[in-house]
Amino acid sequence: MQVYGLQEENWNESALSIVVVGASGDLAKKKIFPALFALYYQDMLPNHFRVFGYARSKMSDEEFRELIGGSLTCRLSDSKDCGRKMDDFLSRCFYQPGQYASDEDFGALAARMSEGEAGLAAADRLFYLSIPPNIFTAVAGAASRAASSQTGWTRMIVEKPFGKDSESFKQLSDELYQHLREDQIYRIDHYLGKELIENLTVLRFANLVFEPLWSRQYIRNVQVIFSENFGTEGRGGYFDQYGIVRDVIQNHLLQIMALFAMEQPASLDAEDIRNEKVKVLKSIQQVRLEDCVLGQYRSRTTKGTTLPGYLDDDTVPPNSITPTFAACAVFVNNARWDGVPFLLKAGKALHSRVAEIRVQFRHVPGNLYRNKLGVDLDKATNELVIRIQPNEGIYMKINNKVPGLGLRIDSTRLDLTYKAKYDTHLPDAYERLILDCINGDRRLFIRNDELEVAWEKFTPVLKEIEQRGVQPELYPYGSRGPVGAHYLAAKHGVRWGDLVDDE
């Protein structure tokens, strides 16, 4: 396996062509091209690499470079030679117009790629499918037939959504397999590329202190929380087709939960890690409607300004009942986690933007200091918080004596805030994942059977919600979400940790 950026002797052995299909889209402009430039800026790409944009729009190479050039930035902490590096990167960027299902057009792209591959021992080709899922298979078919490498590897990064339910996922999977092998398909979930998610297994398996605590004996509940402080803002047409459960919970949060709950893998090999994740997903009991709360944000007027509700978005169908908030209690039926609720919560237009894992430990039995902790023991419970974004960090809530005469106890934090500890810029998730794909490292990409099991757990409840026309509970824009979420947590004897912190 070549590791570009680490084994310089490999850099001159092969060419690397990176093709961004859907090059004129928002994701490509905002995330993919900036990530590629960041990798180049850090010398993490091989000497002989070139970037190709592919889309239906007519555009020259110069127009393409101007299009993407405006989205490239150099990090403030490392901005030497910024202009020169940017010019060098853009000189390696080319544009090829073409239809998404056309073998002939992808053949023309292959011919242009071959120009930069001549005279080298191998030619590797990476296709990033930044396109709607309804044309995944057409592109995969045309690209694999007409533009696969003959002397190196060919890989394709596929963006979510991976179907809408078990049936549509299976159809998509079967169609992709007609053109690609599993080892060529890199299903990307950008949340798995976050710094704190990759650190999750290090925290768990490289620190002896956590292993005896990581079970039902000591952990009362685990909360995986994702909240945004903005609404759909003109993207409601896309969002309304999926809803928050499909868009966030069934993929991002369930993947984080599987990484958190898995047993120690046999090695750091991608297949060993993904095998353990699949075991967790298979152990999850079927998600039930009575363990879910759905919400939809409504408009709110504050300080003379009206914040629009979901149905005020012109791209959202009138009277839509698509949820913009969901909370679910999920249970893992195995020896380590039996009876421990995993509370997954995601929502738009909430009071804050945050993504975090909160591990709430059990109350101290026979606590000597009970009368010093007040009546609300939840505020005094030990809690491990892994903050994924923003202000990445890890902190542990402990009880401590307040210095001075007398005996007062306060809840405080043992805090590792990344900005305070490390004088470095954290890489964007797309940088990490694209580099992993180039290096053939599949640990943070999703295997087919992971998605198959994940859909099996959620498809029945999603169908029940749609067949019954379940009305989401309305909550004001900028609030803490629907009241029902509090009742869901209370049903399982816990409180949402992010809300306790806010009090």
Automatic annotation (TrEMBL):
<dbReference type="InterPro" id="IPR022675">
    <property type="entry name" value="G6P_DH_C"/>
</dbReference>
<dbReference type="InterPro" id="IPR022674">
    <property type="entry name" value="G6P_DH_NAD-bd"/>
</dbReference>
<feature type="domain" description="Glucose-6-phosphate dehydrogenase NAD-binding">
    <location>
        <begin position="19"/>
        <end position="199"/>
    </location>
</feature>
<dbReference type="GO" id="GO:0004345">
    <property type="term" value="F:glucose-6-phosphate dehydrogenase activity"/>
</dbReference>
<feature type="domain" description="Glucose-6-phosphate dehydrogenase C-terminal">
    <location>
        <begin position="202"/>
        <end position="496"/>
    </location>
</feature>
<keyword id="KW-0521">NADP</keyword>
<comment type="similarity">
    <text>Belongs to the glucose-6-phosphate dehydrogenase family.</text>
</comment>
<dbReference type="InterPro" id="IPR036291">
    <property type="entry name" value="NAD(P)-bd_dom_sf"/>
</dbReference>
<comment type="pathway">
    <text>Carbohydrate degradation; pentose phosphate pathway; D-ribulose 5-phosphate from D-glucose 6-phosphate (oxidative stage): step 1/3.</text>
</comment>
<dbReference type="GO" id="GO:0009051">
    <property type="term" value="P:pentose-phosphate shunt, oxidative branch"/>
</dbReference>
<keyword id="KW-0313">Glucose metabolism</keyword>
<comment type="function">
    <text>Catalyzes the rate-limiting step of the oxidative pentose-phosphate pathway, which represents a route for the dissimilation of carbohydrates besides glycolysis.</text>
</comment>
<dbReference type="GO" id="GO:0006006">
    <property type="term" value="P:glucose metabolic process"/>
</dbReference>
<keyword id="KW-0119">Carbohydrate metabolism</keyword>
<dbReference type="GO" id="GO:0050661">
    <property type="term" value="F:NADP binding"/>
</dbReference>
<dbReference type="Pfam" id="PF00479">
    <property type="entry name" value="G6PD_N"/>
</dbReference>
<dbReference type="Pfam" id="PF02781">
    <property type="entry name" value="G6PD_C"/>
</dbReference>
<keyword id="KW-0560">Oxidoreductase</keyword>
<dbReference type="InterPro" id="IPR019796">
    <property type="entry name" value="G6P_DH_AS"/>
</dbReference>
<dbReference type="InterPro" id="IPR001282">
    <property type="entry name" value="G6P_DH"/>
</dbReference>
<protein>
    <recommendedName>
        <fullName>Glucose-6-phosphate 1-dehydrogenase</fullName>
        <ecNumber>1.1.1.49</ecNumber>
    </recommendedName>
</protein>
